[in-house]
Amino acid sequence: VLRHLRRLERKGWRILIVASELFMAGAEIAATWRCIVLPGRRWWWPPCRTTLTPLHAIRLRLMRREVSRALGGECPDVILTQLYLRFPLLAAHCSAAWNVPLGVFVFDEREVWEENLRERARLALESSVVLQAARRVWAVSEEMRDAYINQAGSGGAAKFSVLRPIPQGGVEKGATWNERFARRPVIAYAGSLHDFHLPSLRTVAGALASLNGELLVICDETNAALRALRRECSNVRQQDFLPQDELVPFLAREASAALVAYAFDPEAQPWSRCSFPSKFLEFVHSGLPVLLLVPRDTAIHNWAMANGWDGLIDGMDVEAVSVYVKRLTAVDGWCALANQSGAIAGGEFDPARIQKQFEREVELDSYD
């Protein structure tokens, strides 16, 4: 979302952020952006323990009044929000009160993160309220669109577009073949790391070990899953998290390929069904081959099949992983895989192309 907003500002849009004080500690907001920080509550506000109740309706009106006072009578042209936590309900409320178009980003199927069935039902109801209020909904995948389309009310299908998460892009120097790949292939994994990732990472580390290779894991060194992996595999190297603008150049310098891995137990990672891994879009901009070690019936697997992705392995197939790693050690094999990344980075995953779609659909006349 930040990347979209920065690009909108360069086109002349003025950006206003409305956020809770609970989330503003340490936040960095561009000096040219206005920011309205809302309190958790005022002493005279009635208590509000849950959403979509009469007391919650009062709370929304009080919060809207805070925003209106800060705006000084000005009204926005478009309200954008993300289907996450409770602030989308305020966005929907303001959209209706001010008669301003609402655009909603949907990056995750948030209900599947909640184990409590009653709370899951409440989240689903909240999602329906927000999506029915929206004029435009940007779903990160076709599967995400299909998961929510019925909650958007009659005519909901016309609201939805599939908009991939916009990558950083703009890598000055992407990866090229290096003779060290033949002597010591390195596959990099970056991002959240959980126990359910371990079977995949063990398999990749084992295939690399047979070729004197190394698994480079970019995560916090205190991560429990990382520690377990390093106890079992001697060829695992850890790197602390890097700022987003440094990560992709780092991968281009240090690795032979990048890895996107999902749990093969659908119960362990249920959100993988609809989510689309933003790291994949980032990784292809490094110019490296990208191995997708993901199960069937997930959005990224469906995309890979539809696009003939050569680095797709959809099972815990040790032999298939070993064959892939072997390809990374030969110039022809590596270049064929890397060229696939370059082609998609300059095509569907080009940030300028993704932004162009977003700007076309956020313009007011697109809501008519």
Which features characterize this protein?
4-stranded parallel sheet, alpha/beta, 6-stranded parallel sheet, elongated, 14% strand, 14 helices, 41% helix
Name the strands of the widest sheet in spatial order.
9-8-7-10-11-12
Counted beta strands: 12
**Radius of gyration, CA atoms, in whole angstroms:** 23 Å
Mean pLDDT: 93
Treating each run of at least 4 consecutive H or I residues as one helix, how many helices?
Answer: 14
Morphology call: elongated
Report the end-to-end length measured between terminal Cα atoms.
23 Å
Strand content: 5-15%
The assigned structural class equals alpha/beta
Low-confidence stretches: none
For the biggest sheet, the summary is: 6 strands, parallel
What's the helix-strand series? HEEHEHEHEHEHEHEHEHEHEHEHHH
**How much helicity do the residues have?**
40-55%
Description:
This protein is an alpha/beta fold. Helix content is 41%, strand content 14%. It is built from 14 helices and twelve strands. The protein has helices at 2-10, 54-71, 87-98, 117-133, 142-148, 180-183, 198-209, 224-232, 244-254, 278-284, 299-306, 318-327, 331-345, 351-362; strands at residues 16-20, 34-38, 79-82, 102-106, 136-139, 160-162, 186-190, 214-218, 236-239, 257-261, 290-293, 312-313. A six-stranded parallel sheet has the order 9-8-7-10-11-12, sandwiched between helices. A four-stranded parallel sheet has the order 3-4-5-6. A two-stranded parallel ribbon has the order 1-2. Strand 8, helix 8 and strand 9 form a beta-alpha-beta unit. Helix 3 (87-98) runs parallel beside helix 4 (117-133). The protein is elongated, with a radius of gyration of 23 Å. The two termini are 23 Å apart. The mean pLDDT is 93.
